[in-house]
Amino acid sequence: MALAVRLPVFEGPLDLLLHLIRESKIDIYDIPIAEITSQYLETLAIMEALDLGVAGEFLLMAATLMEIKSRMLLPRPPAIPADADEEGEDPRAELVQRLLEYEQYKMAAEQFRRLEEEGRRRFTRLAPPDETEAVPLEELQPDDLLRALRRMLASFSDAGPPVTSLQRERINLRLRMRELWARLMDADDPVTLRSLFEGGPLPSRLEVIVTFLAILELLRLGRIAVFQSQPLADLVLAIRSPDESQTDG
Question: CA–CA separation, 38 vs 36, rounded Å?
């Protein structure tokens, strides 16, 4: 029976070295460099035997470990501690610093990975669809038209100086009906009520009222239909088809 050997996938030499230190429960600040170098070289030999394609950076780390090991094995004067080199620094200090920084980045990456996995297990509620898009129009009743008339009059109430005297104006309802009908016939799309007063001076209250009377009369004759997408939205005027007019009649 063949012996199955499984090795974890290491992202680099620091990852392998940190794995060996943690697996052996070694104090990272006091690494037994001879022991850890031996374990590192054994692991590299297994990886090469399994044809895992040992990269040059792994071999560079092995050379670094061997250098540190040789520096620590050199004889020292009695006045210099065994754990310090000729400059008073531990040969392992730079390697320990690199390992500590790598471990911090690895822990942060692991935390992000856990957060991503938790996010995949959560299903957030989607926002409701925009009600302003593809909202079906609803035909209005006379009370709705009266409320729209009050809003329209209120929007033009501040235009011009306050009225101190009244002048008699002739109200030509039939002319306004013909103007509305011509506007609807020439329009490719339904016409909004507010657009009837755009492009010129602000209308007077009388002009707004006459326009509404013309709309009501065209409604009574079954010539047009008035819609509204939602409460308080602008009124939409459209020509009623002949079939609809006959049905209503």
Answer: 5
Q: Structure tokens of 126?
A: 């989607």
Same domain, 111 and 190: no
Q: Kindly report the CATH number assigned to the domain that includes residue 188.
A: 1.10.10.580
Structural domains in the chain (count): 2
- Looking at the fold, whether 49 and 102 belong to one and the same domain comes out as yes
What is the end-to-end Cα distance of the chain in Å, rounded?
95
pLDDT one-digit tens code per residue, 21-48: 888 888 888 888 888 888 888 888 887 7
Which pLDDT tens digit goes with each residue over 181-194? 998 888 887 788 88
> Do 95 and 148 fall within a single domain?
no
CB 202 within 8 A of CB 155: no
Q: Which domain holds residue 64?
A: 13-120
Does residue 1 belong to any structural domain of this protein?
Answer: no
Q: At what angle do helices 205-220 and 173-186 cross, to 10 degrees?
A: 70
**Amino acid residing at 110:** E
Closest CA to 195 of 209, 210, 211: 211
User: Same structural domain for residues 110 and 148?
Assistant: no
In sequence order, what are the residues at sequence separation of 6 or more whose Cβ sits closer than 8 angstroms to the Cβ of residue 144?
Answer: 228
Torsion 115-117-123-127 (CA) sign: positive
Same-domain pairing of 93 and 17:
yes
Total-model pTM: 0.39
Gyration radius of the chain's alpha carbons: 43
Tokens 């809003």, located at residue: 151
